[in-house]
Prior knowledge:
Oligomer: homodimer
Order of helices and strands of chain A: HHHHEHHEHEHEEHEHHEHEHEHEHEE
Helix content of chain A: 40-55%
Shape of chain A: elongated
Amino acid sequence: MTRRRPSHSRPAVTLATIAEAVGVSRMTVSNAYNRPDQLSPELRERVFAVAQELGYSGPNPVARTLSRGETGSIGLVLDYALTTAFSDGATVAFLHGVAAGAEARGLGLSLVPRIDGRHAALVQSALVDGFVLYCVPEHDPRMDAVRARGLPFVGVDFDPARDLVRVNIDDRGAARATAAHLVALGHRRFGVVLPYETYGPTGADAEGRATHHVERERLAGWREGLEPAGVDWSTVPIATAAGTGVETGRLAAAELLDRAERPTAIIALSDALAMGVLEAARERGIAVPHQLSVTGFDDVPEAALADPPLTTIRQPHHKKGSEAVRLLLEGEAAQSVVLPTELVVRASTSPAP
Amino acid sequence: MTRRRPSHSRPAVTLATIAEAVGVSRMTVSNAYNRPDQLSPELRERVFAVAQELGYSGPNPVARTLSRGETGSIGLVLDYALTTAFSDGATVAFLHGVAAGAEARGLGLSLVPRIDGRHAALVQSALVDGFVLYCVPEHDPRMDAVRARGLPFVGVDFDPARDLVRVNIDDRGAARATAAHLVALGHRRFGVVLPYETYGPTGADAEGRATHHVERERLAGWREGLEPAGVDWSTVPIATAAGTGVETGRLAAAELLDRAERPTAIIALSDALAMGVLEAARERGIAVPHQLSVTGFDDVPEAALADPPLTTIRQPHHKKGSEAVRLLLEGEAAQSVVLPTELVVRASTSPAP
DNA sequence: ACCTGCCGCTGTACCGGTACAGTCTTTACC
DNA sequence: GGTAAAGACTGTACCGGTACAGCGGCAGGT
């Protein structure tokens, strides 16, 4: 797909081609496109006519970008392969928000996914004016690459301790609310389902090992919600499996449901995982919510359609995206924001059996 | 967000800066990054060390692109505002496919949405090596803009009569299968639900006015499926409303359900519209499928979860995206493809009352 | 001793634009 | 009639790289 003077095609029509054909300087042609007030209307028309005739569609955007120093688009750095990103309702909603923000300002949007092995290459080569970082772990080559580019960037769901402009929700508070809800229903035996495979066997272990701010905070929130009820966080079992999707939740939940002291409530890090928990329970004939309460986090569209509908935390995914773009464009003046969440109680939770 | 020598920041570190600091030519620094075999390993290390020290993160991607003539990313031109695109399961799946194709080849992906009033501007300024066009109408300024750019492009769901490389499904055949299914169930009184507001009152009218190839073909397919059963296509009512989503379907269906001679089967152009039809029926206490059969098109994930689950046409959205990318990169050699579809019969259709 | 070939590095000429500071006319005004 | 200001173009110097053709020096072969 290279374009470098393909031998079979015409030898590239540029500003200079048009200038020569019209008999004016390159600048005048450039001005015809960019500063109509700098030349007479008649000449401008003539320039356009010749351009049309020669199949010139206007200044080359790459050259223009180099010269002007602005690309007119922003990059969205995702910690996922795009394949994963588009499979997750929460991420899609977020993408949607970013897209809406970009669109409203006439900016293009470039997706910079994770491609294993190429680490930071896509970040280094992205033709953008700034980045929005979504779900990038605390220590990551891409993070360094973004810093190195020297472009403005905004982090979504990053640790407030880090020195960057952020969009966050109160993960800890929301998680605490979930735990409190379950405690109020009388639950005392809990299980937690997390993505990936890197977590320890208990809540306390996991909290120390979390690589994403979001996970660490939610774990802390659950702890804060459970401990007042006398639950020993260091004995709450954590189950994990590879991946982040429904299947991950199903596999992880199996571990919790097959143990002797089966939990009466399972708290999942996300709705996707929680839907997997529901599946695992169904497979075992465990009735939700009567024998087992399940909670998610995100309130993706599917959560309300699940069987039973999922008790979860609603967070403004879309707004996170649009706010990130807003902050990105505000530049120096940008202040980090924390967006509100809401506990949505549906039918997947009920009093402990 | 401009970067043009912001007065407060260091005056841009470039290849030349590093070259001077190391005491070599610019070319040598460039080679250190691009052609390691062109200089001694020691010197290369020294270059990198100095670069690191001076905060130089490698060759500027825009300049490199200009010089090399390749951006390393592809553009996806959507007929929708991104806001709409991300709300539709079919489009998201397609996006996903394009993203996967790009990702597999280490290419970036730029989204080029529709922004009213800016017509073709985003196409003109997109920093890409080629375009995939999705759902762009037959005659459209963006289409011309893409042609004018002189870059390779692939159309998805375009009229085969048009001179371009395409990815298609057999819309007509699939639609015919839907109609035949309903006819076989004994239905003879039909209604059709289309998006937008531009269609005539009957099937025959609509067929003439369709602006998208997809719509025209599906209308033709329905006709071909219905006529053998003696249904007069020129009397089949068409209902439309603004938009393309569930609400559009609900409004359009209202028109059909409130008429004296209520149809026993409603055929919708898409699943999203069909879900709206289901809503409209529910509001009126009309039982689906016993009093009314409903069909969609797309088999989006929600279709199977609808109440009742939707009879629809499954099409390989994801594959459409990945094939489009494949064809784009094949260049000259690319041959248009037609992907298979499948009628998926679920619970929203049953024998006519 | 001489030629050859390779290695490691450099110089120059682009890639296709835009910014900015002129220059040369015209027109406007007192 | 003289000067100032406005209008219409142009020339030059970048933007930050890369391609490609050299060029000197040294090792190996004869």
